[in-house]
Each structure stands twice: as structure tokens, then as C-alpha cells.
Input
Amino acid sequence: MNLVLTRHAKSSWDNLNLTDHDRPLSRRGREDAKLIAKYLATYEYTYKTILCSTSKRTSETLEIFLNYIHKVDQVNYLSYLYHASAETIRKEIMTLDTGGTYMILGHNPGIEVFLRNLNNDSSLKAPTCSIALLSTVNNSLRLNKLITPKNLKSQ
Output
């Protein structure tokens, strides 16, 4: 299995009357999402399923991604991925078919804690719009790469 574990792009705080769930992306968030989407497109994955939190910022991040990654069989918006814990993310990953490629698009701290636990590395950071490229090797999930917009901008 290949898995792209994604944290949403940077959200806007311009309208303080919005709930956390309804905050859209900021200008920087949209730019970062395009940058990451272009990078992801180089992998030419065919996604069996993309699982996305129902928040506005995650769905807007995914909309931008879908302009660059066109091979997607199914997209599911799941309310329980909104601020899901590391344990919820782990359980969701365990339900995925080991032969496919998937994306989960969600939030911190769940994503960051999940990656820290997976790598036994408490210093690991998953900033906004970061993607963790994971795969199963000998029935064990492994982090292959963590890509951030800052990494790509510095190349």
C-alpha cells in the first residue's frame, strides 16, 4: 500500500465570526496547495480512495489537489476525520486494502502525533500542507518522505 497522509493547507483567520470547521484557505494556503499538488502529480499515483475531513480548509485543499492529480477512483468526506486523533487515523489506515494507493487529508495534532508514533520521533513536525509519503513493507507501515511547502520552495 502507498499512503499520502496530508495536513490541510494554511487557513485564513480573516473572518473571526466563522467556526473553526468553516475557515477557508488563506492566499498562502492556496499557493502552497498548488505547489504540493504539482509535486504529488509527479508520482502518477492512481488513488483508490481519498479520505478527507469535512472542514472547509481540507476540502479546499483537496479541490486544488484534484486539479493536478486526476487518477482518483473515489473521494469520501468523513466528519470523524475533523481533528481526528492519531489513534483514529491509525484505525482508518488499518481498514485500507494493502494493494492500493490512498490519501488521507486531515488535521494536526492527529497527523503529527501519528507520524511521531510511527517513527518513534517526538521532534517530527507536520506543518500546514505537508505530505507524508508512506508505504507498507513486510506488512509494516513506513514513512518514506515528509515533504513540506518550505522544502519545495528551497529546491
About this structure: The chain has a mean pLDDT of 96.
